[in-house]
Amino acid sequence: MNADDRVMEFFPKKLSRKKSREVFAILKDEIEDRGWGLWAVEINSELAGYTGLASPAYEAHFTPCTEIGWRFLPQFWGQGYATEAARLALLFAFATLHLEEVVSFTARVNRRSVKVMQRLGMVRDPEGDFDHPELPAGHVLQRHVLYRLKNMPETTAMLKRELGIQNNERANRVG
Hints:
Blueprint: H1 17-34, E1 38-43, E2 46-54, E3 67-72, H2 81-96, E4 101-107, H3 111-119, E5 123-124, E6 130-131, E7 143-150, H4 153-163
Antiparallel strand pairs: 1-2, 2-3, 4-7, 5-7, 6-7
């Protein structure tokens, strides 16, 4: 997945199989240490991608924070999987972790991820848009847009409604 041109279109570079394994080990350790992180998403017993929560490894005006992110193989695009998985992760962030806010960001030119953020009810913070500190000046992906979602009763109610959750039965199984 991390070596696929389409999947990595809005990332600075593709990852080798070795580097992907290293990243996977780190993600796995983070879940074991914290109890949350970026979770694998399987569809019909096939790895479709991942979604979940992370803490950016760099400093920016909005860090420290918890971000939500996703990455899926192209054959799973356009079917609502990223949005549904992200809703589950957000519900976990708000109902279980009691986070006050979750952010998401992407390269300004990444329209697909921006659409997911909007479907999640996230609101763009134009004052928060930033140049990614790990990309060189002038890089086509340097400028990033920042979206935010606050933990409010109406937010969790909306997430539950969108997921078809009556009480917390499904939310309690997330993670």
